[in-house]
Amino acid sequence: MIKRTDYFKQLDAFIDKPQVKILTGIRRCGKSSILLLLKAELIKKGITTEQIIHINLESFTFSELLTAPKLYQYVAEKIKDKKIYLLLDEIQEVEHWEKAINSFLVDFDVDIYLTGSNSHLLSSELATYLTGRYVEIPIYTLSFAEYLQFKTVYSKDKKQDNKSEFLSYLRLGGFPVIHTANYAAETAYKVIYDIYSSAILRDTVQRYKIRDIELLERVIKYVFDNIGNTFSGKNIADYFKSQQRKVDINTIYNYLHALAGAFILYQTARYDIKGKEILKTQEKFFLSDIGLLYATMGFKDRNISGILENIVFLELKHRKYNVFVGKFGDKEIDFVAEKQGKKIYVQVAYKIDSEATVQREFSTLLNIKDQYPKYVVTIDDFWKESVEGVKHLHIADFLLDENY
Questions:
Q1: Taking residues 359-383, what's their average pLDDT?
Q2: In total, how many domains does the chain have?
Q3: Do 268 and 170 have their domain in common?
Q4: HSE of 34 in the Cβ direction (CA atoms, 13 Å)?
Q5: Is the pLDDT of residue 127 over 80?
Q6: Strand-strand pairing, 134-138 and 110-116
Q7: Distance CA 198, CA 219 (A)
């Protein structure tokens, strides 16, 4: 297994600290592997195997531990009087799990690490029982830099230049499992579809008790078909109305909420750059991995601009930016990203192949008069110039650039 360094730096800072560490993300994004590697790291630091309790709650081996009292009893019998490092994988499988975790903190000397595949479960229950005593570490599918690392280790194919490699990444997405072997695209999409189906069934349908599966699938298709476009729940309801199907707008919002909870989607608000306020209408939704789009709907060239936006969005999230869609007057900026006093602006386009495209992609950024970095990111090298401080980068170079 490859040690995903960025996440280990975050975890290492909290080893032996009192906070509960929670790794969150869509199924098969690598949470369980990170937990296994953490176990090896703890042993390397001198922790004995008797001090580590590692339970995968999706394993049939531990099927009797799926209630808080049973889990508590099992762990309590193993703890005795020594300090324990408790690693619990897919904690949401345990009914009222948060009560058990709270009791462990009260009753024992424990350092706790959890993984979970539903953001709402981890936010609502934890807010009640563990306020101020947990830290969430979001885990994403492979970034482009991580993909290149996996390619070096696992692939028999000769590594090409970064821009050619990006085209492979573009077609396959970043689920780690498909980059640990030489999967053909068709086979990879079958693997991803199984991941998608599991996330839909277990983390969406069952979790939120959704009955109208056919409507949920229609909502998913609409969102997947509009990656990179701003829209609202009302837009979706109006679309269904045009198809002679009346749908309650609250149902639409509940489904979007459920899909975001399962980490299938990420919701991004709009930010008024002039007014310096977050707007409450016309969000954008992005996929947790573009492979989900191909596995469910195939690859459509007409979606390419939205797909590139999606990849840039995930890179910014991976780098721990708060990401917004920018509004500047009547113009849109694809991303305004902020963290710890830093800010960058990013426009994403497929190609710059005409003066009109240059004007469209650069002009809005040029009108923003602050000194924060501004980028136009594309998939071509035809236009290589920067314009009055606004940098143009090939998307592969942007994703690997360590200067923002």
A1: 90
A2: 2
A3: yes
A4: 32
A5: no
A6: unpaired
A7: 17
